[in-house]
Amino acid sequence: MLPPQNFQAPYPAVLLLHGCSGIERNIPMWQAFLSSKGYASAVVESFQRRGVREICTNFNRVPQRERLNDAYTALTALAARTDIDPKRVAIMGFSNGGGTVLGALNRLIESQLPPGHARFSAGIALYPDCSAFGAVPMTAPILTLIGQADDWTPAKYCEGLSQKWGANFQTIVYPGAHHSFDMPDLPRHFMGSARNLHSSSGYGATVEGSPRALTQAKIDVEAFLARTMPATAAAR
User: Fold this and answer.
1) What is the domain extent for residue 72?
2) How far apart (Å, rounded) are the C-alpha atoms in residues 62 and 20?
3) Half-sphere exposure of 224 toward its Cβ, with a 13 Å CA cutoff?
4) What is the mean pLDDT of each run of 10 residues along the chain (236 residues)?
5) Distance between CA atoms of 131 and 99, rounded to whole angstroms?
6) Are 142 and 225 within 8 A, CB to CB?
7) Is 51 a member of any domain?
8) CATH value at residue 16
9) pTM here?
């Protein structure tokens, strides 16, 4: 766990869920950013323990139910710490991990938790596939951040959830940005073997970093967290 500096414990915390390629360089970047804003963070690793390198080419290698179990197991451990406020724990995921965020805050899933189980107070999903959600409401405020040019997880599905659920489900679309926009040095390239449920062939997706979208995403994440579970600065 990475704690914040110059903030008062017990801290609010954010659990981070990696995308289909596993832990990439955007994860430590977001951890450092969250720490600077008063939030502890921890990364939920779901692939190495199962002997899996990636699931971009086959999502079934690690089904979402297993990633959901990982997320709630990590939440239980984090909420038990004396330096963490169990009522201020958010979940933040990227791509496939972003889909797990939506699943974790789905009322049908959360209703299966035993009484007294820790629950997430907010969710942040970067470029998730929102197309599988909609019939069941979410149980906490959610922020989705997605690129307008994303051809892997099209923005229109998240925008549709925002129209359905209103203020509790906020979607921000960044003009011209592609999938993985929060890795600013990532050159644009086409991943031909990537499983894509929104492609006519079922495969292929474009990824590219965007410094402009990342800068705005940090502003949007900070504002969302300040609204849903603000940090407390240490007394000087």
Assistant:
1) 11-228
2) 9
3) 28
4) 88 97 96 96 96 96 95 95 96 97 90 86 97 87 98 97 92 98 96 96 98 98 96 67
5) 10
6) no
7) yes
8) 3.40.50.1820
9) 0.96
